[in-house]
Amino acid sequence: MKLKLPNPGLDRRIPSYTDLEKMEAEEAGDRPKWDNKAQYMLTCVGFCVGLGNVWRFPYLCQSHGGGAFMIPFLILLVLEGIPLLHLEFAIGQRLRNGSVGVWRSINPYLTGLGIASMLVSFVVGLYYNTIMAWVMWYFFNSFQDPLPWSQCPIDGNRTGLVPECARSSSVDYFWYRETLNASPAIDKSSGLEWWLVLSLICAWVVLYVCCIRGIETTGKAVYITSTLPYIVLTIFLIRGLTLKGSGLNLTTCDLNTLLSEGVEGTGLAFIVFTEAITKMPVSPLWSVLFFIMLFCLGLSTMFGNLEGTVVPLQDLNLLPKNWPKEAFTGLTCLVSFLIALIFVQQSGSYWLALFDNFAASIPLLVIAFCEMFIVVYIYGIDRFNEDIKFMIGHKPNIFWQVTWRVLSPLLILVILIFYFVTKVSQNLTYLVWDPNSNKFPTLAEVEYPSWINGIIFILAGIPSLTIPFFSLFKFIWNRCKGSNHFDGDSISTISDKVKMSVKTAN
């Protein structure tokens, strides 16, 4: 016996296979498309592999068991990550729509799932592009010999080194004082840092220029943004293998050093790697290459984050319908820049860590579980299998059936519950750069102020609760109108567009 929840009106809300073929023929000349499969694949790779692979993943790996961390990571990658990725690709291609349009087509009560995805993309883009601004700041400072973070500055009396730098290190001082000018607490800040504001402007302008013409521009940009990082990493690997001591066994390295010094994920990229660069000959050249690599990694990921915000905004019809996509993109970049100014004040790095910890954790787990459940038990796994057969010529094998139906949703649910319980039961703390701390230069661990719980609720709670709240709102709205229909939206669906275009052609 197969479980499938009732979903009346589904066939009227989604395009039939005949409609899809007609749409493909009619839109062949007008619809933006990739020049070739390589562009599409590079775009996917660029979105999946980003800055987090350099500044976040290595930190998480070494702080959770080192090489042992790779075992659960690879298991979850195979049983959860890849099945979810394929499911999203397939359902999006079948319904030919963005995150809002896909779930609204399956059932109007599920529109909140698309809105939740849009909110997560928007919030992640806010702090992600701020990291891009930091990368640009370091890139601009890389055209100096010696590099500005390779040695401590002289104090005002020119009698010795700046005490704060002398007590820590030159790379620490350049990051926390020269770049961030970090305050000792998240609720203490004396304003914006102009050099970071200018870098943030540059980051959003570059992103807007690259995205303004859609895939005609980004499709060509990914040739550089998605391939250059691997070229640079290969160069660094070859260079590393030629250094003295490169043949030593990794077990001789003290992996606890990073933890004892209190380095966060961003510190790994802007402290550990930058210090390694200063030990290399012609260090400005290596620094330029390294930060070009980081910028390319971040830019290709931001293409996806921006699209994940702009397309749903258009689908929701919240702004004038006659607005071109360039206007939506420009407005999104402007609003994002204004909100992201919170990250370029003296306490900005603490705010960024807060956003990173909560904006892309619980909401993404909730969204992933809902997507799996909806496709399998509301849209229907049998219908989904037929859709895939229509698109690629054969049904998915037993691996996909088992993961989509049982394993992936179950794993996500277990992780979600475990993560939620863990976070609720622990005291929330963060690390600060405080020269007055007794443990300085180790980062001091302090508790968040009580009001930060409200910010956490906004970051993690609102996107998650958007899904049930929109369904409730839709139910009440339909009741007030005296309608019990599940497909009574005033917004036209894809099927309506197809029928109208066919009627016009006839």
UniProtKB/TrEMBL annotation:
Primary localization: membrane
- Which keywords does this chain's UniProt record carry? Membrane, Metal-binding, Sodium, Symport, Transmembrane, Transmembrane helix, Transport
Gene Ontology CC? brush border membrane
Entries under InterPro entries matching the protein: Na/ntran_symport, SNS_sf
Q: Which domain of life is it from?
A: Eukaryota
One Pfam match, given by its short name, reads SNF
Instruction: Write down the species.
Output: Denticeps clupeoides (denticle herring)
Residues annotated to bind Na(+) 1 = G46, N53, N256, L297
Question: How does this chain sit within the bilayer?
Answer: Multi-pass membrane protein
Which gene is this protein's source?
LOC114770000
Please give the Gene Ontology molecular function terms for this protein. metal ion binding; neutral L-amino acid transmembrane transporter activity; symporter activity
Q: What is this protein called?
A: Transporter
Task: Provide the family line.
Answer: Belongs to the sodium:neurotransmitter symporter (SNF) (TC 2.A.22) family.
What sections of the protein cross the membrane? 40-57, 69-91, 112-140, 194-215, 222-241, 285-306, 327-346, 358-381, 402-421, 451-473
Which GO biological-process labels does this protein carry? Answer: sodium ion transmembrane transport
Q: Where does Na(+) 2 bind?
A: V49
* Subcellular localization: Membrane
